[in-house]
């Protein structure tokens, strides 16, 4: 499973921000796609400079949890009408956005917190993560009649290197 699109990764310097671009990953609607999508997105974000640097670690963990929840929802609830899902990652304008698209027309809603339930809180968790950092999430219809569930999170400002060495 590979993510396609976007721009190639550039060498990252200390204090450099992430590379902007759009990447799409198509995957079958099955349970094994959940960890595969999570790992592919993690590797992509690392290649774009959003891993291994202190200002991005919390963002990275939140995004990976969001990807896991959105892909799990698509696999569990849309697979009957959507044999394939598409995960999209967009980095630009100070934001990173992840979305999961499927062919099922049903528009999900976040359940209220019910302590008696053991599941069904994925969208509630996605909403909580995005609201905590000042982001946004929603669902929109696709031109094919399906839907895309997305979450956008603001990128923290990159920290400048404390003792940057000028290039020779």
UniProtKB/TrEMBL annotation:
This is ATP-binding protein. Residues 28-151 form the Histidine kinase/HSP90-like ATPase domain. PANTHER family: ANTI-SIGMA-F FACTOR RSBW, ANTI-SIGMA-F FACTOR RSBW-RELATED. It comes from the Bacteria. It holds the Pfam family HATPase_c_2. GO terms for molecular function: ATP binding; protein serine/threonine kinase activity. Keywords: ATP-binding, Kinase, Nucleotide-binding, Serine/threonine-protein kinase, Transferase. InterPro entries: Anti-sigma-factor_SerPK (IPR050267), HATPase_C_sf (IPR036890), HATPase_dom (IPR003594).
């Amino acid at each position: 499973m590979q993510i396609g699109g976007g721009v190639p990764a550039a060498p990252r310097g200390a204090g450099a921000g992430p590379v902007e671009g759009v990447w799409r990953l198509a995957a079958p609607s099955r349970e094994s796609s959940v960890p595969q999508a999570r790992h592919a997105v993690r590797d992509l974000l690392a290649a774009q400079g959003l891993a291994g640097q202190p200002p991005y670690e919390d963002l990275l963990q939140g995004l990976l949890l969001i990807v896991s929840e959105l892909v799990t929802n698509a696999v569990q609830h849309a697979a009957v009408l959507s044999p394939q899902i598409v995960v999209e990652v967009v980095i630009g304008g100070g934001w990173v956005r992840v979305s999961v698209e499927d062919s099922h027309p049903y528009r999900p809603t976040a359940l209220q917190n019910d302590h008696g339930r053991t599941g069904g809180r994925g969208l509630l968790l996605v909403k909580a993560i995005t609201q905590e950092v000042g982001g946004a999430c929603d669902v929109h219809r696709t031109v094919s009649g399906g839907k895309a569930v997305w979450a956008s999170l603001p990128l923290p400002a990159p920290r400048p290197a404390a003792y940057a060495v000028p290039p020779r």
